[in-house]
TrEMBL record:
One of its GO terms (biological process) is ubiquinone biosynthetic process. Keywords: Lyase. One of its GO terms (cellular component) is cytosol. InterPro entries: UbiD (IPR002830), UbiD-like_C (IPR049381), UbiD_Rift_dom (IPR048304). Belongs to the UbiD family. Residues 93-286 form the 3-octaprenyl-4-hydroxybenzoate carboxy-lyase-like Rift-related domain. This is 3-octaprenyl-4-hydroxybenzoate carboxy-lyase. It comes from Caballeronia glathei. Pfam families: UbiD (PF01977), UbiD_C (PF20696).
Length: 458
């Protein structure tokens, strides 16, 4: 698998892609179809809104699909990400004119909506948004790059507003603004899905996520320098939007239906001045449902690996973690441990909150619980948790600014549940079971229901 097209062909061969024809409206309808089939089938729109550029969406609908993408068993996904975080692989630079993403160039009379089929997602959104753009930012102080997914609202033919949360790209922009300089960025759309996943890893500052993608693929990512700035981007991307984030200037952005399934309000945000758009000769425009299953998977799995790596440094007996779908792949974390000491689960809870500020609920369970099974997790809470002893509450901690239940400063209350068995009380928590037996339960299946019919007639 080398690019978006390879993945689409794979999904098609395995009967997990549907093609949609006709003039399906860019406003609402494209996302309506993607949301309907999400988790079951990916969608390919041949002429959305009458546009010549097709759209693809819903491409990572299940955790199992990620395992197939990486050619790994499902239980090896997080270890693979952990290895990649420890040993990033530097990229390989190719010539500008040889890159597929540079086959067609638009550097005059740029008009975003004429070139690209940009969709409007929700009924109250402030306008069309690019929802799957990977923003490659250049640190002017170190020359290093960062990769992130940011929401981008169309503000004009050659202008995109950008929401930057308090992470690496925002730090780059703050530093550039202090110097009264524009921040070079290039937005790419349509990639090998491994690059999308890597973009969400929690990596140290100035460790570019493209190098993590290379480590995941066990070969360097081919990159090419943008034409109008010094940012390097994946050479096999479908589309690239080059430009600069302007210092000290803001435009009105929003509302937008974000990943928690609620709208953010309007705010004044920085914007990108677009200097050039390049793309493949026949590009494919990638759409991500901002509040859908795919967004949970893309955001959740890389975060899980980073959180697990950090937690195991302090607690080697942490076996696995999972950011739940109900918690949107951000807010609710399940931690599986081999409990060894009294009070240890509460320390694990505190450690988890320190791994990422988005986390607001941590549930710690024993090694006998399948953390992919919500019923088993609920059973552990029901039978091993007492609020007066096992509940941890932290008031007014730093949380996600996109959590509608938090205050305007981004402060949230956080809760931890110790749903582990009590140490030294094995008999009390011995789980009832049917003793194992030789043979298969299907060995005694009758060929038909004749025995029932005979008994009822007797």
């Amino acid at each position: 698998m080398n690019n978006l097209r390879d993945w689409l062909e794979f999904l098609d061969r395995t009967k997990r892609l549907i093609c949609l024809e006709g003039n399906i409206a860019l406003e609402y309808d494209v996302l309506r179809y993607i949301e309907h089939f999400e988790g079951k089938q990916a969608c390919f729109f041949s002429r959305p809104g009458g546009h010549e550029v097709p759209i693809a969406g819903g491409l990572l609908g299940q955790r199992q699909w990620v395992a197939e993408l990486l050619e790994l068993p499902v239980d090896q996904i997080l270890p693979a990400f952990q290895r990649a975080l420890k040993a990033p692989l530097e990229w390989n630079v190719v010539e500008q004119d040889s890159a597929a993403v540079h086959e067609v160039t638009h550097d005059k009379d740029i008009d975003l909506k004429r070139i690209l089929p940009i969709i409007t997602c929700h009924e109250r959104d402030g306008g069309p948004y690019i929802t799957s753009g990977l923003v490659h930012g250049l640190n002017l102080e170190t020359g290093k790059q960062n990769l992130s997914i940011n929401r981008l609202q169309v503000q004009g033919p050659d202008r995109l507003s950008i929401l930057m949360l308090p992470r690496d790209l925002f730090a780059y922009y703050q530093a550039a603004e202090k110097l009264d300089k524009e921040l070079p960025v290039t937005v790419t759309i349509g990639h090998d899905p491994v690059v999308e996943l890597a973009s969400q890893a929690i990596a140290p500052r100035d460790v570019c996520e493209l190098t993590i993608a290379g480590a995941l693929k066990q070969r360097p990512i081919d990159v090419v320098k943008s034409y109008t700035n010094d940012v390097h981007i994946p050479a096999d991307a479908e589309i690239a939007i080059e430009g600069f984030i302007i210092p000290h200037k803001r435009v009105l952005e929003g509302p937008f239906g974000e990943f928690p399934k609620y709208y953010t309000g309007q705010d004044l945000l920085p914007y990108i001045r677009i200097t050039c758009i390049t793309h493949r000769r026949n590009p494919i425009y990638r759409v991500n449902n901002p509040s859908g299953i795919e967004n949970v998977i893309i955001g959740g799995i890389p975060r899980e690996s980073s959180i697990l790596e950090r937690m195991q440094l302090n607690f080697p007996n942490v076996l696995d973690v999972r950011l739940t779908a109900g918690g949107l792949g951000r807010f609710h974390l399940i931690v599986k441990i081999i409990k060894k000491q009294y009070g240890e689960a509460k320390n694990v809870i505190a450690c988890a909150f320190g791994c990422h500020y988005d986390i607001k609920l941590v549930t710690v369970v024993d090694e006998d619980i399948d953390i992919n099974d919500s019923e088993q997790i609920e059973w552990a809470i029901a039978t091993r948790f007492q609020a007066s002893r096992d509940l941890v509450i932290i008031q007014h901690g730093l949380g996600s600014k996109l959590d509608p239940s938090g205050d305007k400063r981004g402060l949230n209350d956080k809760m931890g549940l110790d749903a582990t068995k009590y140490l030294g009380d094995d008999e009390r928590f011995y789980v009832s079971r049917i003793p194992p037996s030789l043979g298969n339960v299907y060995d005694r299946l009758a060929k038909d229901s004749q025995s029932l019919a005979s008994y009822l007639r007797s």
